[in-house]
Protein 1
Amino acid sequence: KPDFTCTTLKDAIDHISTHGPEEPPASDPISMPALLPSTTQTESLATTKPADPPALHHLERLCEQILEELKRRHDQRPDFSVSKLMAGITQILSIAILFVAYLNRSNNDVMFPLVFTAIFCQLLTIALLIMDHQR
C-alpha cells in the first residue's frame, strides 16, 4: 500500500518539497516500533507551505516543455526544401515582371501580358508553398 498518492505532477512536487527525501526503511521493518505523530507534529505538517512556489512552478513548466519536445521529436522537418526554393524564385520573378510591366504602362499590348504572367507566377508561388506544407 503506498504512503501517499498524487494525482498531478504539481501534487507530487509539493509532497516532495514538504516532506523531503525520506530515509529508506531498515532491513527489518517489523522490528521498528510504529510511532504515532503527536498533535504538535500533525499541526506543523498541516501548516507547512511548499518551499518556494515560483521555483516549483518553474520546474513544472520545464517538465511540460520536456514532454512536448518528446512528443514532437518525430515531427521534425528538414530546413531545406526544393519547393520553398522554387517558390522564392517565382516570387522574385513575379515582382521583376510587375516592375517591367510598370515601366511599359503606356503600351497596353505589352503591359497586360506581363501583368498576367506576374499573376501566374504568384499563383505558382502559392501552389509551391501549399505543396511544401502538405509534406
Protein 2
Amino acid sequence: MYCYKCGSMLPEESIFCMKCGVKLPADFYTTSESLPEAKPTATTSDNLSDFIISKDGTLIKYKGNNSEVTIPDSVTSIGAGAFEGCKSLTKITIPESVTSIKWRAFKGCTALTEITIPESVTSIELRAFSGCESLTEITISESVTSIGDMAFDGTKWLQDQPDWVIAGNNILIKYKGISSEVTIPDSVTSIGEGAFEDCKSLTKITIPESVTSIERR
C-alpha cells in the first residue's frame, strides 16, 4: 500500500503517512499499480519499515541496525525498550513531536555518543539511557520536569559530572559526593528518584526553600 500524496510505502494498518504526515482515510489505500512512479523507501537511516509505531503514536520498536537514525515526526512517545540493545546506534535524532521517553528506551545502546532531548519532551523514565557507556554529550532542556531513577547510569556523561548532577527543569538527579552533611543547592526545584540512594555516609541534609517536590527513593 502506498500514500496517495507522496507515494511512500505504508506499513500495514497505517492511519497516516509517516513520511509526509498526511492522514489517510480508512477506505483510501492505493496500490503499486495505481502509482507506477512510486517506489518503496530506500534503506536509509529513516527507513519507515524499521519502525513499529502504534496508532496512538508510540514507537514500540526499532528493528533496524543503522548507526544513525531519525525518528519519524509521527511519533509522540518513545516506548519502553524501543531501542534497547541497539549496539550499532551512534546517533539518534528525536523530533519535536515526542513528549516522553519511556523506561529502558535506549538501555544498552553502547555505541551512542550524544543525544539532544527536544523541548517537547517533558519526561524521561527509569533507566532510559542506562548502560549507554559511550554517551558523553547530553542536552536536556528545561521542559523536562521528570527524570526517572538511574536514567543515565553507566554513561560517561554521568561519570564526568560534578557531585551535584542537576538537569532539565533544575532536577537533582544524582548526588555523587561522600560528605556526611550536605546542603542542596538553591537552584534545585525537585529531588529526583534515587538522587541520594545508597549514600551510606550521609547523616544530615539541608533542603532549600526552592525545592517543591521529592520523588520516591
Protein 3
Amino acid sequence: MTDTRSDWLPQPVIYRVNGDGVITRVNEAWRLFAVDNGEDDLGDGAVGKRLWDYLTDPTLARIYHDLLRLVSASGRAVTFAYRCDSPVEKRHMEMTIRPIGDEVEFENRFVSIEPQTPRAFFDRMVKDPEAVPICSICQRLKAEGMWADALETFDAGRLRLEDSPMALAPTLCPECKRTLEGKAAGAGC
C-alpha cells in the first residue's frame, strides 16, 4: 500500500453492515488497509462490532446513521468524496454506500494517492477539549477560527508543531457537514 505511483491504486476497501449497524463482513483490502495503517487487530476483529464504535465524532456518527437509513429505505446508493490521509500520503477517496440485500455496503475507492512529507501531527487522534479539530472528510484543520489544509495551517504559522505530536479531534468542518447532511436528506443520491 505504500506504492504511490499514479498508475497504480489499491483495491477498494469494502465492508458491510446489517440494519443495526453491525459490521458483518470486510474484504481483504480492508485487512491490508488496517495493517498498513498500524491497526493490525482491526482486520477480522471488526466483524461483529458496531460501526458506531469506530466513529468518535457524534455529528459524523449521526450523519452516517442517517445515510445508512436513507440507503436502506430508498434502495439507492449515495456517493461522496473524502480524504483519508496517512502521515506519508494524501489519499483522495470516494465512498459509495449501497444496499445489498438486507445489508448496506460501504465501498471506499482510492481516487489518487500523493506522497507527502511525513508529519507527526497525524499520530494522535484523541477526544480532548484542547485537541485541534480535524475534519474527518477533507482532513482540514481548524486553527484561529479558520479551516485550512493541514500543511497550509502550519506553513502560515497558525499552528506550531512541538516536540510531541499534537492531539487531534476528529469532527466535520461546516462545508463537509452541509454536504453530508444534504446527502443524508436525500439530495444528490
